[in-house]
Amino acid sequence: MSLPAQLSEGLELLGLTLSPEIQARLLAFLALIQKWNQVHNLTSVRSPETMLVRHLLDSLAVLPYIGGPRIADVGSGAGLPGIPLALARPDWHVALIESNHKKAVFLEQARIELKLKNVEVVAERVESFHPKPEFDIVISRAFSDLVDFVRLAGHLGLQGSSGGMLVAMKGIYPHEELVQLPAQFTVEKILQVPVPGLEAQRHLVLIRRA
Q1: CATH number for the domain that contains residue 54
Q2: 163 known member of a binding site
Q3: pLDDT confidence of residue 38
Q4: Residue 25 annotated as binding?
Q5: Domain containing residue 123
Q6: At what angle do helices 20-40 and 3-14 cross, to 10 degrees?
Q7: Is 92 helix (H, G, I), strand (E, B) or coil?
Q8: Binding residue per annotation — 127?
Q9: How many domains does the chain have?
Q10: Which parts of the chain sit beneath pLDDT 70?
Q11: DSSP assignment, residue 135?
């Protein structure tokens, strides 16, 4: 199956409707990762077909469970999940937070080449970043365990009773990490998220301030 067909089928299975233009830009992003990966080792995944599943579809699978309009992608790496989310939801503002210089340079290049007017690249450590206004959703895909995530990035979310949500993308159900979560944060729900073509488990942990 061709990459465009694989992407189209995956989106259909996720229940997502994205225009042909957006789908083409998602594949252009994938090609950009492949190109840079030859020099900078952005990801250990080499096969385009596997990248499509483990990077694009895995990132887009969270869309039904989060809202905007201000999103922070903590430890963005190769722009995952932030760039696929920004492409799929051009009305959202997405901040890609990445302290690794080479990866931040890639993110800036991707922002320019893909003409992502709704993306901001923040090349600094997350604990040093103090934005105003804060974010509705603070999401991480492979940043750290839950304890470090809320400790380092908890301040990025909206404060108060109707405050923002921290969303951790996890593999297997994170039993041990949940036990260690600080008392000032509470788990709202944990969702098992199916990713088309991916045999491994995926869970979303939705966290708010207690």
Answers
A1: 3.40.50.150
A2: no
A3: 80
A4: no
A5: 3-209
A6: 120
A7: coil
A8: yes
A9: 1
A10: 160-162
A11: B
